[in-house]
Amino acid sequence: MDTEPDHADRRRFARHFGERAPGAAHWPRVADTREQLWSPLALQFADLGRDLFAVGSVAAVLQLVVDVAAVTVPGAAMAGLTVHEAGGKLSTAAQTDAKAGELDALQQECAEGPVADATRADGTGLSYSTDVATEPSWERFGKRAARHGIRSVLAAGVFLATGADRHAALTVCSTEPRGLAAADPDVVLVLAAHGAVALDAAGEEEPERAAIGEPLRSSDVITRAAEVLIGKRGLEPEDAYDVLWRASLSLAESWRE
């Protein structure tokens, strides 16, 4: 696998995502038929998707996403994937530890926390705290989460295609203050985007009951991640390409060590 991005590919990506008109509801999709992948970046994501999407159900994909997050993110003690429904309801779609569901219940009760911040319409798609026990923006949730043994958290949000007010967030947690200092938030975003594509496949059906009809597309993962990087973090498309290249390469290397 090449470790340096292809400059021509980077320019194609920039043109592609630069075509979206300001305020347009939909982002341009990347073409990635298995016979003719459009770019080295798409091929890199296809390699990730071949493993993450190989399981046969939406629930299994989501579980694999959180399992991989817990293994590959330095300092992570557990991970959970949360759906933020319209109206603010939180539901835990997958978790590596029952505490993830408990933290979602706490966030629901306290009306604050990493999931709400990572999925805010006016946010950056990321939420991070080095120590929830002293986090000023989460005075209710943070102290209670600390009593559950969670001290630092990192959440990456993505906005689903199935419903304008329906979002998802992948959260990784550490039991130590600054326990996620070495974590790469962009790797968490890439994993969250894979989870979002699986949730989109489920539609309004509960993930544990949803089968995968059409093959899940790695190009949709790129689109989900790019819309956060460009639309919410304000990156130029060229810079978003670099982030996705580096994060997907880092994830593949750490996962397969």
From TrEMBL:
<dbReference type="InterPro" id="IPR029016">
    <property type="entry name" value="GAF-like_dom_sf"/>
</dbReference>
<dbReference type="InterPro" id="IPR005561">
    <property type="entry name" value="ANTAR"/>
</dbReference>
<dbReference type="Pfam" id="PF13185">
    <property type="entry name" value="GAF_2"/>
</dbReference>
<dbReference type="InterPro" id="IPR012074">
    <property type="entry name" value="GAF_ANTAR"/>
</dbReference>
<protein>
    <recommendedName>
        <fullName>ANTAR domain-containing protein</fullName>
    </recommendedName>
</protein>
<dbReference type="InterPro" id="IPR003018">
    <property type="entry name" value="GAF"/>
</dbReference>
<feature type="domain" description="ANTAR">
    <location>
        <begin position="202"/>
        <end position="257"/>
    </location>
</feature>
